[in-house]
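Friendly challenge for the regulars: who can give me the structure tokens for this chain first? No prize, just bragging rights.
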Amino acid sequence: MKTITAFNKILAVLVATAVLASTGFAQDTVKLGINEVRSGAFTTNGDRVVWGVEAAVKEVNETGGILGKKIELVIEDNQLKGEIAVQKLKKMILEDNCQIIIQGSSSGVGGAIAQQMPRYKRIYLCTNAEAMAITGENFTPYTFRTCLNAATHVKGLAKYFGGKGLKKPFLLNQDYSWGYDVAKHYEMYVTQYAKDAKVVGKELHPVFNKDFGPYISKIQAAGADYVLTGNWGTD
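First reply, four minutes later:
Bragging rights claimed.
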């Protein structure tokens, strides 16, 4: 409940900003678009984003809405593909008149959405896409992120494993922006908390990978005492 309440405060600020920024906004409802994966192997990740937002919106609407306006959700399936997410985004803004677009599953998809928002001058609320570029080199003033980024996440992990005396990590990550950031920043931080630590191996694998056998063999051969991965979904 505390998580929903905190999210609602952020949502209230963003919705109020969107309404006040829209000259002559007279509708009784404000539309929010959820641009998420709703099909395929990673469906459950998109489901969790949708369920969380639905719970928050239900609470907001039951307490009178924001600035007297109720929130209506428009939900689209981006199939975890950036090009489809951009197509859905265009429809949600131009046809459905969504004021805010919410997305979290996949930094690759999130990055594609974020880069479109200056064109439409609408807000992108990033709930759990953590690649550095989204609020770094590719940041736009239309992007708001409610989650950690990759560097913050892995720094905590490096401190934890260093405190356990583990010094030989093997880095196994997905082959796209999020996986690159996890590997890069873990390698930067690991020796801060275990001075003689050494990364004994690094591998990137395709998203939706079904056979980790070859990677397990490499991990064993490298003599790793733990595996550091940012993998999510079925991976």
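The mean pLDDT is 90. The longest helix spans residues 2-21. Your move, everyone else.
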